[in-house]
Amino acid sequence: MARPLIQMALDSLDFDQTVALADQVAPYVDIFEIGTPCIKYNGVNLVKELRNRYPDKLLLVDLKTMDAGEYEAGAFYAAGADICTVLGVSGLATIAGVIKAAKAHAAETQIDLINVADKAECARESVKLGAQIVGIHTGLDAQAAGQTPFGDLNDIARLGLGVRISVAGGIKPATVQQVVEAGANIIVVGAAIYGAPSPAEAAREIRELVDAAAV
Ligand SMILES: O=C([C@H](O)CO)[C@H](O)[C@H](O)COP(=O)(O)O
């Protein structure tokens, strides 16, 4: 099995805390995600800072774009994003716009299936348009209401779409093996790392568990 990637969700609003957290966990993660609240608060300057600091890491900007796809995402790809996210619920025109912006910068697009009613159909159509990553995502509010991403991950993995599948939504050490075995190629972890007494130690543990599960 190919080694799944670990994506660190940087969900603080504070610019300096975000950069400091990235520095702590960098040895153990493959992708830095600038989370949606964080990118809204800090904008392209944070993309540029992390790009300059970590030229060799993948950088995902969790825009969750809902409209004006090409226009909104273009600025973030230009600032150094490798991947931007667009909401599946935005519709195919917006998704196509983000994909167009990504192609212009030799970058990638992730569809976020959060709150999409027919996730299989949305994933299929998005992949046809050229999206490279399908994101299964139980957001923070849905998590607080007791939801998890595991059922959706199994359903989407079974489709065999031939693109990478990302999973997000409360992933922690106890659930890493389950999501790797279900076919996730990108494991997103936020609170389980940034909320731990030692984020670096928590990230190291996740790295070991992901690598062990993928053998
Ligand atoms: O995308 C996220 C959320 O919607 C806020 O933007 C989180 O980054 C994602 O859910 C991962 O964080 P955890 O669920 O805390 O692991």
List the helices and strands and how they pair.
Blueprint: E1 5-10, H1 15-25, E2 31-34, H2 36-42, H3 44-53, E3 58-65, H4 69-78, E4 83-87, H5 92-104, E5 108-112, H6 119-129, E6 133-137, H7 140-144, H8 150-158, E7 164-168, H9 173-182, E8 186-189, H10 191-194, H11 199-213
Parallel strand pairs: 1-2, 1-8, 2-3, 3-4, 4-5, 5-6, 6-7, 7-8
Helix pairs in contact: 4-5, 9-11
The structure holds the ligand O=C([C@H](O)CO)[C@H](O)[C@H](O)COP(=O)(O)O.
Concise synopsis of the structure shown:
With 215 residues, this protein is of the alpha/beta class. It has helices at 15-25, 36-42, 44-53, 69-78, 92-104, 119-129, 140-144, 150-158, 173-182, 191-194, 199-213, and strands spanning 5-10, 31-34, 58-65, 83-87, 108-112, 133-137, 164-168, 186-189. It has 11 helices and 8 strands.
What does this structure look like?
The chain has one domain: Alpha-Beta Barrel (TIM Barrel). The protein has 215 residues and is α/β, with parallel strands linked by helices. Strands 1-2-3-4-5-6-7-8 form an 8-stranded parallel beta barrel, surrounded by 9 helices. The chain starts with a strand and ends with a helix. Strand 5, helix 6 and strand 6 form a beta-alpha-beta unit. It contains 11 helices and 8 strands. The chain binds the ligand O=C([C@H](O)CO)[C@H](O)[C@H](O)COP(=O)(O)O.
